[in-house]
Structures are given as structure tokens and as C-alpha cells.
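Lecture 7 notes. Example A: sequence first, then its C-alpha cells.
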Amino acid sequence: MEDTKLSSRRDFLALAATATAGLGMMAPVAGAAAAAGGPATDFTRWLDTIPGKHRQVTDWPDLNGGMGLGYSLAFLMTGPVGYGVPESEIGVVLVIRHNTIPIALNDSAWAKYKLGEMFNITDPDTNAPAVRNPFYLKPGSLPFPDAALQKLIDRGVRVGACNLAITFFSGVAAAKFGLKPEDVKKDWLEAVYPGITVLPSGILACNGAVSRGCAYVFAG
């Protein structure tokens, strides 16, 4: 199995324990009650920002040709037609997790950590392992320019990135380059694009979005 994959259930459980222990940024705080009756947190406040009456969460754990972007755009384009409402009534959540986590990171991280090689992602303009993010300003090889990640964010798509995946894969990169895991994780967190929120896990993001009325769509 490739070293970029979660190699065992034990690896994942160890990762979850380590990552959640360091998630002070998501600790409960005093405030309005969340939907489940608990205290408000950074996570529940993020869920509160999901717009619209008609909502979809796109779960994107594997690249699948960039279809997480494509499915998000498809709902933005066709929801207003199908439901007879303005786009402001269409809420879209995109969850970047597992093997798509580099899509949340800027070009400097792609070049420094050779993320195209690490995740087996080819730049469609060069047909070589990507040394820049091919999905931010352009939608990879998808024939829909409006599916570029930046354009989706600009149209109000709520994008969440999985902290567990950042923790695990930055650790893989640290081992490859002989660096400290905590230093590489800090580097990756600083490389997350504006408009993308790092959440405790992608699984939690999907769960929370569904609890807020989002239909679940699996993108890869």
C-alpha cells in the first residue's frame, strides 16, 4: 500500500487521538446552544454559516478527477433552476479530506513538499507530477472553468479541510524529508487557502453538515 494511505485501523485511531488532543482551537466555549443542545464551538459556528434553504454537502476523500469540485458546481448551477429560487438559497459545503487534502494548500506547499509526487497528482498542463495546486485557479482537467476552487469559494461554497488528514500526511512528509512533524504541520496549516476552514475531521464536517439539512453526495 502507498505510504500516502492510512495503512491500518490502528494508525487511524492513533492519529485521531493525537490530532484531537491538540485541537484547542475547537474547544467548547460559552455561548448559544448548538443544534444538539451542547455549547457553541468554532465548529458549530462554522455550520451556522451554511447559507440557503436547499443544501448539499460534497464529501471528497479521493481525487476522482476533481469531481468534488464538479459536483459542487453542478448543484450551484442547477439548484436555482430546479427549485425556482435564487442562488442565495442554495447552500453548498465541500469537505476536503483524506487523499484530497493537498487541494486545500497553496502552491508553496506543493513545491516545497512535492505534493504532486506524494499524492500521485499530475498537472494537466505539464503531464508531470504537480508542483503547484492544479485545482485552485483552474479545475484541473475538468472542462468547467467555474469549478476552480477559488471560484467556488468566491460564490459562497463553504469549504472545510480535515485536521486529521493534515496531521497524518504532514507527518508522512516530515518523515520523508527528515523534518519535525510539528514543524511541517504548522507549515501546512499556514498554507491553507483563505476561505477554507480547518475542522477537527472531515467525517465530523460531513456529519455536522447533514445535521444542518445538507443532502450528502459522495464525490470520490
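Example B, a different protein, same format:
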Amino acid sequence: MRLVRLAIFICLGLSLFALTISPLYARPQPGSVYLVDVEGIINPPVANYVGRILQDAAAEEAHLIVIRLDTPGGLETSMREIMQVILASPVPVVVYVTPPGAHAASAGLFILVSAHVAAMAPGTNTGAAHPVDMSGETDEIMASKVVNDAAATIRGIAERLGRNAEWAEQAVRESVSITANEALELNVIEIVATDLDDLLHQLEGRTIETTAGSVTLNVTKAPLYEAPMHFTERFLHVLTNPNIAFILLSVGSIGIIAELYSPGSFFPGITGVISLILAFYALGNLPTNWAGVALILLAVILFIAELNTDGTGILGSGAVIAFLLGALFLFRPFQPASPTMPNLSVNPWIIAVTTAMMAGFILLVVSQLVQARHLPARTGYEQFIGEIGLVHETLHPRGRVRFQSQLWFAETRSPLEIAVGQPVRITGIDGLTLIVEPVVE
């Protein structure tokens, strides 16, 4: 348990360190060009970030906002929030798909089309990229409603801003994808720019219509202002990665089990509860199949039940199977997903490693239970009374004692804690827990 405590203290220390070394950015000058980086899945933290920056830019009299976009897609609700704040912005907003190799897929296409100026770097692409993702029986009526709604949304925005509404609708219905040069030829975007300087040069002198009226851009010599995510926004954004969500769910489950296996340790239990809370936050922002979550929770219940048996391993085996199935089903929704959401899954290697860890933990527990079950029949508990063991984990009052080359749960009735390495005498046994007292020299 010392390793668990050390790991927790290290994580807390690194978090505080990250907060203290976060750079302090100067306030932007009036007339600045705000630079906003949106990478990864479109989710509530990203929507909050974009909304905050656009609001700040308007308050600080910014001249232009450039959103550098690279996304596979995301939640429809978050996507619509971003589209709404862009369309309502009194400051011109340019959505720029960059760097080369980046893409604006699914929800990214909607955000690109909603910009006052849409731009892409060479070597980038945009489009639906992923079909509607479904598992189980296809609900054609529901799928049709979802696609029709998304198609009507993007067609309406494209028509309002004078872009190719026919292709935009096709991108939703048929999942087509195009390169930057093709997007320029098809009137999906207005600019192909190699870098930020090229983008600003091509924007110079362009007149943009916003909710505040016409704005003529004079940006080539304007000061640039990097507008980063706050620490909290960045932290929450990282959590909504499917791999991170699954790892948190696994750590939370193992932490709860470890606390029940060694009551009174507290740290595994606290770590487990915090991890589960963060995991459920992440799962709430992803296309989660809650049947997968239920299977993982069933695995925890079966594991706990195994701790209260004589170590047959049957319930433990069921726990491993339920855990593996839960991991495989976790992001495979039975209902049609929005076309704005990419096809998400947990890395198979992460599933394999966490399942192996769970199986190894169960095997260890079962082996100890089997050993404990057979010891009394061979020697009798009475033989232990008066024997001496060494404290392996500080007793205050619970901990572990090494006795006969094995680790035992132990508890002392002494009001003082007994440190690691101190000899103790066995005075009784309660189930599989040794009752001990310090050896007085």
C-alpha cells in the first residue's frame, strides 16, 4: 500500500507543479488576432473553451479569431454550441483546418461550414469520414431521422453563408470526403493557405459580414494572441478520450476491490471513488453503451463475492469474462449515433493489459484464500496462538503481518500503532485476521 500512497502523492505533486508553472499570458491588445486551437473530440470542455474565447475576444475588441481545427468529430450538442457562438460572433471567425495531415471530419465539417471564412491547409481533408455507427439491429426509421436532421442543419448553414449546400448535404448522407483543393473548387471553403502568415495575407482587405455589421480585415500587421485552454478545460478534455475513460473505470473498479480486500487502507478506496467519478464524467460525454458499464460493474460484484468464498475461482472467472465483455461493448451503442460522432473504441492492447491485471489479481486472491482454507485443517488455529510474526504493513490498528512466510491480515487491540519490522505475538484469530499485540522486550 506504500506504493499506492506514493503514486497518489506524486500525482498530486505533479498536478500542483503543472498549475504553478502554467505560463501567465499578457492581456491581448485591442485589434489582436486571437488564435484558438481545437484538437481531438468535440465535447463540452471544447465548447466551453471556444465560447469563452469568443466572448473574451468581443469584449477585448479583437479584430479576428482564427480557430485552428483538427478533429475526427464529436458530440452533436457541443458542435451546435460552437456553431451558434460562431454565427452570433460580432468578431469575424476563420476556421482553418491545419496542420497538413489534419482533418475536419463529422462535427468538424459542420464547424468549418459555419465559419465566416473557411480555410484549409494543403494536405488536409474534410467530410463526414465515418458512417452512422450502430450495433445490434438497425433501426432504419431512427437512423433516417438522425441523418435527415443533420443534413438539414448543414444545408441551411451552407446556404446562409453562400457555400456549396449540395455537397455539404452529400457529405452527411454519403460520408464523402474531399481534399483542401477539391473543397476550394467546390466552393466549400474560400481559402487554401500554407500557413498562418499566408492565411492572414489572403484575408487582408476582405470584407466580412457579422452580427455587428460589415468588417474589413486589416490583419497582416495585427498583434497575435494565443488563447489557450485553461488547466481545467484541458484536464476535462483529456478525460473524454475513450482509452482514458476505460482506464479510469478500470482503476476505479480495482481500487474499490483492493479497499474491500484490505479494509482500512483508505487510499485504494479513495483513489477508486475519484477514478469512478471521473470515469462517469468521461462516459457521459462519449457514445457509451451502458450495458458495457453494467458488465464491468458486474465484474466488480463477482470479484467481491469471490472474496467471501473459500476460493473456488468460479466467481472470479466470471468476473474476468464480464470485465472483458464490458470493455468490448463499452463504446458500441445499440442506438444510431449522430453522424457528427466518430467511431470510437478502446485500444485492444489497453483492454488486454487491464484484463490480464484483473485476472492476475483474482488469481492471487484465490490462491491466498485456498491456502488459508487448508491451513486450519492441517494444523489448527490454536497452534498459532503465542507465535511471533513481523509487521509487514503498519498496524493502526489494521495492517499486515508476515507469519510462516505468508502475509496475513492483522489487527492490534493496542492503542498505539505498531511500525513495520516490529515483532508481534498472535493472541487470537478472527476469521482470516490475526489478533496481535506488540512483543515487549
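Note on Example B: The first strand starts at residue 33 and ends at 39. The chain has three domains: 29-232, 241-375, 381-438.
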